[in-house]
Design brief:
The complex is a heterotrimer of chains A (about 325), B (about 300) and C (about 550). Chain B has about 300 residues and is mainly α. Chain B has 13 helices and no strands. In chain B, α4 crosses α7, α4 packs antiparallel against α10 and α5 packs antiparallel against α7. Classes of the chains: A mainly alpha (about 325), B mainly alpha (about 300), C alpha+beta (about 550). At the A-B interface, α1, α3, α6, α7 and α8 of A face α1, α4, α5, α6 and α7 of B.
Chain lengths: ~325, ~300, ~550
């Protein structure tokens, strides 16, 4: 087998169509890649066991699921369970809010964390880089409940620091918790604050994989620091950005429940901009306890994400097939 | 032959000099650290001071009550700490190995099933059968209830990280791997002797995320663990907090309840401490650049 | 990032939401504190007429079984195993069954118990009610066994101790699923006012009988706020309502409130059983206008806070009054223990008498799970929990000497042993009302004993008016979509309205419109049909 791999190391397999039957070709391909398949096997089997088998449970989304009757005995109800997601204005609003806010998060997160990673990368002294990295990672550890407490200390109408400051400056205080228009950016900032440290590490690691020879060559050619960033670092980060954006688009219909529920203190007056699918479903199902409806919501989220990723992936593939996700 | 490289061998020039960079990063850093300082300070404060005067950088009156309360049964804490360390070590080690193996395979451009396999993995990022079928399968199909494996196995392969690793591996100079193949090295050898050593920063990154994921998790324990001896630290702390909150909300009061807010803050500090330490330990691998020269 | 995150966060939230529910629960679930002990006179007389066969079966003939009991842990539970062993001594002797206690935290109770039920894990008894481990959802999911035959046969004394019309509260579609715990059923609103504040302002609390009466008192406190920093009162939960408590205005909310917010109700003494949206009944406007007055006058902080914040602020002395939704006997002494101030309990006595409805009775029940292998024995355990004072005291308070000691045995007052406090206790569920007839529990303070709180509570229950819809339980299956949709409308418009945070003139019509857009008409029609059918079946 080692012989085989050695004989044709680089050429993509399956290049030679023609005389062989499909079956023979497959067998050859399998044999050629036996070691690799073996390497992939543990994860493949794990995924099958822990993800694909329970996925069978998705049928619940189309059932009036009863615990005593189970998956096999419950009655089928078609799309009944999906109705509450789409049949009212609130349903459309939460769909829009989820997509809009997550879209905003994807853009701001990507731009900010790449910027931070580049800045970190450009610092000469390792020690200082590490120091900044560490500080920026702290928010990752602070739960939304605690964030909520600090946000409330800043924004509440009676003793909030922001309003005190506004009054001192002669401006009108703002009733933050009844003004939905401000929460798009408040939540964006909160989300950035929490995740920029995390994502900048991801991109920083990507930069570490860039071969230093490239920079040396550029220096010889007389490129300055920013030119190097623009022409070497950023282009080489593209695959990483594409994969992360594609995956984020896949999860665009899943909202960060903690952010939208806890940080807003679930204030009804803010729903206009802050009600997202996860909070909407949670609220709706608290009382009815219908597993089928919860399952329907999850299915809806996955399908929307799937369609969007498929489209984006198709676009990526049109431009550069090597960069696509699948 | 051996040439060690540092990857910041180029200098910051131009109108955005290093001084400016420091100003920006320091500001962001400050915004990130301030809440942490408030958290630590609040954890050492009297609840009454917070209620009356709000959060402060330095506690108005110093008390360790919240910590005493959380740590009052040291044996229990130590055991929980042991459970957490075990699941974190085994889970992130095993997970990182499994994920990088599969990620390596799908990162190879000449692997014929790479698109299909990537799709197979990606699909599970979106679709899942929901909590109830998952729970039934894990308890009745795989019999994981009340087993330490219930705290490890469910998180072993994270689709996002596999695809992230795939991207990292794909950015390695493929000619190098091909050359090794021509030299007669097997896939295993290439993986362990070339790919892994070249990817310290990416492995450290994903490894850190795994460590934190296992370290911070209480959700699996809540679902699958009834035996208190198998409780990880986070779940134990979490239960203590829930209990206080419950007592506080209880309609039938028999006494004053411990201060929820300061205990919650102390919990955050206790949970952050060791994880932050791991971060600092792993961190030096982030900034280790590619040292291809060393391999030649 | 990963799938697990979103799931996990969901649950974290479930925890948060639970705290709201806890407070909501106070409406009905608020247990009074104390009572006489042994079975009531009613049960004594009835017991003899009950069928004599089953319960008298000699224990020796029965095979030994284990019964587990899943309930909501509301206090320290480390010693649950020891307590269960001690309980088993009694139950083995009496019904040849061993008891296993499975207390679950708030975070786990709703989620984990539902999963266990879905997976068909062996559960015998469980706590289920309107606000936790949702009783109606359990019935519609087929999680509970009917008790109609079991209780009269195997728990005759318990069966006889509760009046038939009260039992109706545990029925759905005329089948009984909930084993009701006797506790406070009638709810009265009011405030616990700090004694020092009453003295400082020299206020005559006997004149505070309605929300209107509090206005001048609150004004006086508010006037000094700049110097004292004290608010007249505060919020208990982010979705706390202020004045629209249906029972206060003579309405029955049919146990259908979402969150803390009722949106349909019917007049408690209306024999025609006509249900309407709250926003359409005349008293609602009065209540909302009052709430608006409270809010604009600044009697409460501008933004509602959580229960945790309320407790912290109250302990720090930032509020003058604790709003209470169940001014049960003995409440002031409980609040003293909780907040550290002396209180005067001031129940409000409006135009309507206290009302008992399905919702207030169904607020604490136990059920026998579908997976229970020995339903007869589980029913016998219910009998013992409700009639055997020693067993009941064990589960409520723990083991004598370890978890509690007699402070005054003749008065039935207990306290903590030397060196134990509420914080340090290793077994103190603090939820007598969850396990059985609360009037069997010992008192925890001398005040309770002196006021004879249990008898006072019983009298209150007996003097209360029973709602015309008492015993009606709504089957929500036909309109689950509508209920889910209404939940958002209610939280978005109904809650701010009842908090006085928005202009009623403008928002009330909007509320009604949005309710109807969310399928409110269909919901209301279904409710009315079920009510009409139920009324027919009652004849």
């Amino acid at each position: 087998m080692l012989e085989l791999t050695r004989s044709k190391p680089i050429q993509p397999i399956g290049e030679k169509p023609g005389q062989q039957s499909v079956w023979t070709r497959w067998r050859k391909r399998l044999r050629k890649n036996a070691t690799r398949l073996l390497m992939a096997a543990p994860a493949v089997i794990w995924i099958f066991l822990f993800s694909y088998i329970p996925m069978f449970g998705l049928v619940i989304a189309f059932q009036d699921y009863r615990f005593d009757k189970g998956i096999f005995g419950s009655t089928w109800v078609g799309l009944q369970n999906f109705r509450f997601l789409v049949s009212t204005e609130d349903g459309f609003r939460m769909t829009f809010n989820t997509l809009f806010m997550n879209g905003l998060f994807i853009i701001t997160n990507t731009v900010a964390s790449i910027t931070v990673a580049i800045l970190l990368y450009r610092i000469q002294r390792r020690f200082v880089t590490r120091f900044y990295q560490a500080t920026m990672f702290f928010p990752y550890f602070i739960s939304w409940v605690i964030v909520q407490a600090f946000v409330f200390a800043l924004l509440n109408s009676d003793t909030g620091l922001i309003n005190q400051q506004l009054t001192r400056m002669g401006a009108d205080p703002v009733q933050w918790y009844s003004s939905p228009e401000h929460w798009r950016w408040i939540l964006t900032v909160a989300n950035l604050w929490k995740s920029v440290g995390f994502w900048s590490i991801v991109y920083f690691a990507g930069m570490m994989a860039i071969s230093p020879e490239l920079y040396e060559a550029a220096q010889v050619d007389g490129a300055n620091g920013w030119q190097q960033t623009l022409y070497i670092t950023l282009p080489l980060l593209v695959p990483l950005v594409i994969i992360n954006v594609l995956l984020s688009i896949g999860r665009i219909f899943y909202a960060d429940f903690g952010l939208f529920y806890i940080v807003t203190r679930d204030q009804g007056l803010l729903y206009k901009t802050t009600d997202v699918i996860d909070t909407y479903v949670f609220r709706g199902l608290q009382r009815t306890g219908k597993i089928g409806m919860a399952s329907a919501a999850g299915f809806y989220q996955a399908v929307v994400g799937f369609v969007l990723v498929f489209l984006s992936n198709w676009i990526v593939r049109r431009i550069d097939p090597d960069r696509s996700l699948f | 032959m051996i040439r060690a490289h540092s990857s910041w061998s180029y200098k910051a020039k131009g109108f955005l000099g290093e001084g400016f960079i420091h100003v920006i990063l320091a500001l962001i850093g400050l915004l990130c650290v301030l809440p942490l300082i408030f958290t630590v300070s609040a954890s050492f404060s009297e609840e009454k001071d917070i209620a009356l005067y709000g959060y402060a950088l330095i506690p108005r009156s110093f008390t360790t009550f919240a910590y005493d309360y959380l740590l009052r049964v040291p044996g229990q804490i130590l055991r929980a700490y042991g459970v957490t360390s075990f699941i974190t070590a085994v889970g992130s080690g095993l997970g990182l190995l499994m994920m990088s193996l599969v990620a390596y395979v799908i990162s190879r451009p000449d692997f014929p099933f790479r698109k299909q396999l990537s799709f197979y993995i990606f699909f599970t990022l979106l679709f899942n059968g929901g909590l109830v079928p998952w729970y039934i399968w894990l308890t009745q199909g795989l019999h994981l209830k009340d087993s330490v494996w219930a705290l490890i196995l469910p998180y072993l392969v994270v689709p996002w990280y596999v695809l992230l690793l795939r991207t990292y591996f794909a950015s390695l100079p493929q000619e190098l791997l091909d050359a090794a193949l021509i030299d007669g090295a097997g896939e295993w050898r290439i993986f362990f002797k070339i790919v892994l050593p070249l990817s310290t920063s990416s492995l450290a990154t994903v490894g850190l995320f795994l460590v934190l994921m296992y370290w911070n998790d209480w959700w699996l324990a809540m679902l699958y663990i009834d035996n208190h001896n198998l409780e990880p630290l986070q779940y134990m702390l979490y239960r203590i907090l829930t209990n206080i909150r419950a007592m506080e909300a209880s309609p039938q009061a028999t006494g004053m309840t411990p201060p929820v807010w300061t205990v919650r803050m102390a919990m955050a500090v206790l949970a952050t401490g060791p994880a932050a330490l791991v971060f600092l330990l792993v961190q030096r691998y982030f900034i280790r650049g590619v040292t291809i020269g060393a391999l030649k | 990032m990963s799938q697990s995150l979103s799931r996990r966060q969901f649950i974290k939230l479930a925890g948060t939401a639970a705290s709201g529910a806890v407070l909501a629960a106070c409406t009905g679930a608020v247990p009074p504190s104390s009572s006489t002990t042994a079975p009531t006179s009613a049960s004594k007389t009835e017991a003899t007429t009950a069928p004599e066969t089953a319960p008298t079966t000699a224990p020796a003939e029965l095979p030994e079984v284990e019964l587990n009991y899943y309930f909501l842990a509301w206090g320290p539970m480390q010693d649950a195993q020891f307590v269960a062993d001690e309980m088993s001594k009694i139950t083995l002797e009496q019904i040849k069954a061993r008891v296993k206690l499975t207390p679950m935290d708030w975070s786990a109770f709703n989620e984990k118990l539902q999963l266990a039920l879905a997976a068909g894990e062996a559960i015998d008894l469980m706590f289920t009610c309107t606000w936790a481990n949702n009783f109606y959802a359990n019935v519609s999911n087929g999680n509970l066994l009917p008790l109609d035959d079991l209780l009269p046969q195997y728990a005759p004394k318990y069966w006889a101790s509760i009046k038939p019309d009260i039992w109706n509260a545990g029925r759905v579609k005329s089948k009984l699923y909930g084993a009701i715990n006797e506790q406070i059923w009638a709810s009265i609103l009011g405030f616990d006012v700090r004694k020092d504040i009453v003295e400082k302002y020299k206020w005559d609390v006997s004149k505070l009988k309605s929300f209107e009466d509090y206005i001048p008192f609150f004004d006086a406190i508010k006037k000094d706020q700049s110097s004292t920093g004290m608010w007249p009162t505060g919020w208990f939960a982010p979705d706390e309502k202020q004045t629209w408590w249906p029972s206060y205005w003579g309405y029955d909310d049919l146990g259908l409130a979402t969150g803390t917010q009722p949106y349909v109700s019917l007049k408690y003494d209306d024999p025609s059983l006509k249900a309407s949206f709250c926003v359409e009944v005349p008293e609602y406007k009065t209540a909302i206008d009052l709430a608006r007055t409270y809010y604009t006058a600044g009697y409460l902080p501008s933004e509602p806070t959580s229960g945790e914040d309320f407790v912290a602020n109250m302990k720090a002395g930032k509020y003058a009054c604790v709003p209470i939704n169940s001014a049960k006997p003995g409440r002031a002494s409980e609040d003293k223990a909780k907040y550290g101030f002396d209180f005067v309990s001031v129940p409000m006595t409006p135009n309507a008498p206290p009302i008992i409805g399905t919702g207030s009775v169904a607020a604490t029940m136990n059920g026998i799970a579908r997976t229970c292998k020995n339903p007869e024995r589980a029913a016998m355990l219910l009998e013992l929990l409700n009639t055997n004072v020693d067993l009941y005291t064990l589960i409520c308070k723990g083991i004598e000497g370890t978890h509690w000691v007699w402070q005054d045995k003749s008065k039935k007052v207990i306290g903590f042993p030397e060196g134990v406090t509420a914080e340090k206790s290793t077994y103190n569920p603090n939820t007598d009302w969850m396990f059985g007839n609360q009037f069997n529990a010992p008192f925890v303070t001398m005040e309770q004993a002196e006021d004879d709180v249990w008898n006072a509570t019983r009298e209150l229950n007996e003097s209360a008016a029973v709602s015309a819809a008492m015993g009606f339980a709504f089957v929500q299956d036909p309109v689950t979509t509508e209920i889910s949709q209404i939940a958002t409308v209610n939280a978005e418009v109904g809650v701010p309205l009842s908090q006085g945070r928005v202009d009623p003139e403008k928002t009330m019509p909007e509320y009604l419109k949005k309710l109807k857009d969310a399928g409110g008409e269909k919901f209301l029609t279904e409710l009315q049909n079920q009510l009409d059918e139920w009324k027919k079946s009652q004849k």
